[in-house]
């Protein structure tokens, strides 16, 4: 199988299968989940059995159903955060690269200020002050994550903006918007695409971490980080309940990393070919 003109290695193929399977199962949660997201169906921390394939959680809800619904919440919010952060980061990064030194200095100083504060501490401060609603969570993490995207987008755009084909477009009288959309953006896609996968994986872990600390997705909604927190005490009794959502997070992260590793290798090969 080939994609982007290159053969997909087995590791990347496995990563795509993992991510696609988890995403499809999460999207189909209302159709395939045996019970409702908040429905209590039995005693607490029951082991896997015929009625509950993965057992029950700390208040007697079906673990399989919670995992499916939790995947939808976790993936959906992580995707929304990543899309918003990339929109902000690319727009500001490209602006800093092409609008002159003054704009570049102002935007860079703002980003440097935000990056000087540890992300987790900053997020905890904002969420503690503004609340933990889903919109606040998405915007807060997206703004913090956009600083990383800004640095990459600015660097990539600066390298492309000095290329001959960009100078030719300017000499033809093309406007700034045309140059950005038609010349800079298409050539910046490969590194930005690889960064998108990487940031998406980091965002999933970050959202899960906030949920574990009680500042992420709030009950009654299911999410994998919150499920680990809710069932953490089951470890003391030899139960596997908290390990299941933790395994789902780990499996998804591994799948994303396998895809990103392949995208980065494709990018490296492309750069080597351009140099040659």
What can be said about the biggest beta sheet? Answer: 2 strands, antiparallel
Low-confidence stretches: 272-276
Mean pLDDT: 88
Query: What name does the CATH topology carry?
Result: MetI-like fold
SSE class: mainly alpha
Helix fraction, binned, reads over 70%
What is the CATH architecture annotation? Answer: Orthogonal Bundle
How far is it from the N-terminal to the C-terminal residue, by CA? 27 Å
Q: Identify the CATH homologous superfamily.
A: MetI-like
Which value, in Å, is the CA radius of gyration?
22 Å
Give helix and strand order, one letter per element, not per position: EEHHHHHHHHHH
Q: What order do the strands of the largest sheet run in, or round the barrel if closed?
A: 1-2
**Percent range for β-strand residues:** under 5%
Domain count, please report it. Answer: 1
Structure write-up:
There is one protein chain. The protein has 276 residues and is mainly α. The chain has a single domain (23-275), classed as MetI-like (MetI-like fold, Orthogonal Bundle). The protein is 72% helix and 1% strand. It contains 10 helices and 2 strands. It has helices spanning 10-27, 29-32, 63-98, 101-115, 119-130, 134-161, 164-171, 176-212, 224-230, 243-275; strands at 2-3, 6-7. The protein has a two-stranded antiparallel ribbon. α1 packs across α3 (63-98) and α6 runs antiparallel to α8 (176-212). It starts with a strand and ends with a helix.
